Amino acid sequence: MPKTGDESVDIAATNCDSFKQRHTGQDITLNGAVQYEPSNYMRLHPVPDALSVPSLPGYHLPELQVVLPIVQTYFVCFNSMLPLFHEGRFMRMLMRWYSVSHERFPAPFAAINVVLALSLWQDSSRKSPEDDRFMRQCIQNAQSVLCSLVTREQDLMGIQAVLGLVMLFIVGPNPRPAAALIAIAFKLAHRLRLHTRSSREMFDDSAALERDRVFWIMYVLEREMSVRLKDPYLQQDDDMDVALPEFNDLNDKSSIIFAGDGRAWLNFLLCRTDLARIQARICHCIYSVRAEKFTVDEREAAMTDLDSTVHEWKQSIPLQFQPDMLSDRSFGTNLRYLVHLHFIYYHCYYLAHGIYAHDPDWMRRVTTYSDRYSGRPAVISDTPWQESPLPATWVEDVKTAKETMRLFKVVHKQDLALLGQISCTYLTSMVILIINKLTICELALHNHLDSDDMLIDEGLIYLDRIAGTMDNDRLRSLYKGCLELRSRAAIAMIGYNGLENLWMPDEPTFPWSTTKSISALFESFATADMEGPTSFTYSGMWPQDVANLVDTETYE
Hints:
Elements: E1 4-5, H1 16-23, E2 26-28, E3 34-36, H2 64-77, H3 87-99, H4 106-122, H5 129-144, H6 146-150, H7 157-169, H8 176-191, H9 205-229, E4 256-258, E5 265-267, H10 268-287, H11 289-292, H12 296-316, H13 328-331, H14 335-353, H15 360-370, H16 377-382, H17 394-408, H18 416-438, H19 449-470, H20 473-496, H21 518-526
Helix pairs in contact: 2-4, 4-5, 4-7, 7-8, 7-9, 8-9, 9-10, 10-12, 10-14, 12-14, 14-17, 14-18, 15-21, 17-18, 18-19, 18-20, 19-20, 20-21
């Protein structure tokens, strides 16, 4: 079942801009008919200051002329890649909401609010205070009827609304609200038999396809959470037989991204599903109870097999969609989805090679090794000898780190929804380049060290900025640790160039000096995801900051 192709098709590259052309002027009437007239609805519509927001008790939404453009943007630019809802059925439900007031129920209310919140959150151009307040109100509205969602078994709407909340809460420093909701979603899915192919027989092709897509989106999100939290995943592959998302109909371009030539194409959801399966293998090979009992030979064999699988995924991606080919000009707003796809691959790559910044064991080996270049005799004499922390694949690892940091340059820095999911992998790449300079005596890779300095400086500037914006002590610790590690790398470079006798003071005079050891600075960052929610700093910039899984519904 193909996830990519280069067949000749008589259509333009499928990105948000071409979808806009297809949908421009769409008028969803109250009876569900679709008409097309010239329109400019895709302009960014400011949210009025005096916005009618839902209050409890009651299911109140802003006026339709406020809601409709935001919903349409969601289906054009987000649902087209991750088809959580069937557009026609959702729009008919939306119109019934506004035309038949006595048929307003919790599940449609939650679904509409989730779509509004996702649309505002994913649109990097809509970051005004009014937009942000409206998004947060929509999230609170959806959460207020959560109890009704988790007991709804007659259709998909409850599980779709829950998964929408997962998509909102998965971004940011605290993964636990999303993890709790994904568990609820799977219980709902099992009751609805979404994991079985036989359940399709009760539905027409369109409804069955929607069920399959909802299942695979849930599968993808759950594997993501399992890797991040190092938790066992809930859905076992041998207890499901759902058809993979495929591309059979040129009129249905859901999840399909075309290259600029209009010929080569990529099935985003299928590629993402393949990565989710790799993430499951990571959990099995690294974090499972069974993995803890591996012998040395068993662990080496498992990691070799995992590394091979990761490389096979990268090689399966057509040249037109490789990182060096990605740009706004070629892919429009679909660029962000391709960037995210590659960053998930980079994350899997680093985990398979044991060189991730959230791995406290590897960072401990690195910082212990770096003590010999601390410039402080007291530290050097008290530090046990540490062999090189570099894996056998280091040359390839450095190349991958550079590729990762170059790809990060095409990301719009206002796109918090994307940045919140890729920044840790980007920062790991920066740490790898610093370590490459630190270990120059172990494996001298002289090429492009000057350009590496530029990439490192860009990474440090970004890290300093987000640490301040988020008011996050862990990111500040990482920043200080990276500055100290870079200063030690400079000493290593001096020694490698034959200036071993250069005098360094016993006590550092650097402005970033700290009472914490360098290992403690990195340890604080490396273990962040594993600590309890009370340890997180709530910056107010993430949807998860308003997560409240206690139901506040007061309806009969």
